[in-house]
Amino acid sequence: MSECGFVYSFATVMETTDISVKEHIIQTATRLFHEQGYNRTGINQVIEEAGVAKASLYYHFPSKEDLCVAYMQRRADNWVNGLEEYLKNVDDPRERLVKTFDYRAIHLKNNQFGGCSYIKIISELPQRGEKIDEKVLGIKEKQRKFFHDLTRKLAGIEKKSAAVLADKIFLLFDGGTVQCQVYRDTAPLKIAKKAVMDLLDEYW
């Protein structure tokens, strides 16, 4: 094997190993942050349960805040992928809006009524760090945009009315999620879903 070939192969192995270690750390942190919360989960516990060296964790995540950002992104990705799969055969924007609440109820039940990961994180951190704050706001704005994109597709609705309707639906979505966490029951989201259907009848 040529010298160049050896260097290339070695680099490839190292890159694959790094990705595997990073993924294992994210999976462990995701489980612990979700089950225990951010403040109750220490870096040493993540290191111990992930079975990695401290240097490996800090190589990929220089701070606990960086690890939290990765956790929130993972939760966001899982939510989007699951929702897209659930709605893959639903084209009508009204039906997609309503069924998003159905999927939220399923998602919460499957996650032991853990609630919204991002709201839980910021509720633990009165003095929010810049990275966490930016990530939470970014994810929430993407969720909000999802509803705005759907309401704009409703036939015959004015742009301004569509925006107002989307914000109301988003508020019901987040509020219903929090109430489900409090009561550990999907009933609040069923109420929120009915309110959305009433709003759709009013606006469209």
Structural summary, described in words:
- The chain folds into 2 domains: 1-62, Arc Repressor Mutant, subunit A; 64-204, Orthogonal Bundle (Tetracycline Repressor, domain 2).
- The radius of gyration is 21 Å and the shape is elongated.
- The longest helix has 34 residues, at 3-36.
- Helix 4 packs parallel to helix 7 (130-151).
- The chain has 204 residues and is mainly α.
- It starts with a helix and ends with a helix.
- The protein is built from 9 helices and no strands.
- It has helices at 3-36, 43-50, 54-60, 64-86, 93-110, 117-124, 130-151, 159-183, 187-203.
> What is the name of the CATH superfamily of the largest domain?
Tetracycline Repressor, domain 2
Number of helices: 9
Structural class: mainly alpha
Helix content: over 70%
CATH topology of the largest domain: Tetracycline Repressor, domain 2
CATH level-1 class of the largest domain:
Mainly Alpha
**What summary fits the major beta sheet?**
none
Shape: elongated
Low-pLDDT stretches: 1-17
Q: Report the span from N to C terminus.
A: 69 Å
Q: Which second-level CATH architecture of the largest domain applies? A: Orthogonal Bundle
**Residue fraction in strands:** under 5%
**Strand count:** 0
Draw up the topology in text:
Layout: H1 3-36, H2 43-50, H3 54-60, H4 64-86, H5 93-110, H6 117-124, H7 130-151, H8 159-183, H9 187-203
Concise description?
With 204 residues, the chain is mostly helical. The chain contains nine helices and no strands.
